[in-house]
Fold Copper-binding protein.
Amino acid sequence: MQVWFAAVIAAPLMILSPLAAQAEGNLASRPETLELSIDTRTLAFSDTEYELETGKYYIWEITHDGFEELMIRSPELFRNAWINQVIINDLEVHTSGAVYGLEFDDEGTLTISFVPIRPGNYEFFAEGFQDRGLSGTFVVR
Ligand SMILES: [Cu+2]
C-alpha cells in the first residue's frame, strides 16, 4: 500500500505548495528503518536510544523472542507523531489515531510506521519491565 499512499499524500501537497513538493512534501517517501530486538531472557533491548527528526518517515521494526509476553509502548511518542500503519506478517492495520500498545504474545516481528511531529524525549518500554532493563528513549529534534 506504500505506493498508493505516497501518491495520495504527495499529490495534494504538490498542488497546495510548490515549496513542499521540492522539500519534504512527501512524508511517506524514503523511510528510515529503526530496528529493535527484544531479548527477554537477559531483559535487554538491542537499542536504547534513537535520534529522530520531525517530519521524517520512520519504520520501527520490532522483533520479539517470544520467551515472555510483553507489550511495547511509547505513549508520548505515539501522542506526538502521525502514525501511518502497523504491519504484522503482511497484514496491515491502518490507523487514524493513537496506538496504545504493541503486544507480543509470541515471537515475531511487527512494524509501526510514523512521522514524529513534535520534538522531545519520549520513552519507549515494555510495560511492567521499565525498571528491569526494557526501556529506551526516542530523542526527537
Ligand atoms: Cu494478548
In short: Residues 103, 105 surround copper (II) ion (CB under 6 Å). The chain is about 20% helix and 45% strand. The CA atoms of residues 83 and 114 lie 4 Å apart. The longest helix spans residues 2-16.
